[in-house]
Amino acid sequence: MSNMGSHQGESLMPAVKTIALVTGGSRGLGRSTVEALARRGVSSIFTYHANKAAADAVVASVEHSGARAVALQLDTGETSAFPAFANEMRSVLGEWGAERFDYLVNMAGTSHSGLFGEVTEEDFDTAYRIHVKGPFFLTQTLLPLIADGGRIVNISSGLTRFSYPGRIAYASMKGAVEVMTHYMAKELGPRRIAVNTVAPGAIQTDFSGGVVRDNPDVARHVAEATALGRPGLPDDIGPMIASLLSEDNRWVNAQRIEVSGGQTI
Ligand SMILES: NC(=O)c1ccc[n+]([C@@H]2O[C@H](COP(=O)([O-])OP(=O)(O)OC[C@H]3O[C@@H](n4cnc5c(N)ncnc54)[C@H](OP(=O)(O)O)[C@@H]3O)[C@@H](O)[C@H]2O)c1
Question: In the predicted model, is pLDDT for residue 14 greater than 90?
Answer without folding.
Answer: no
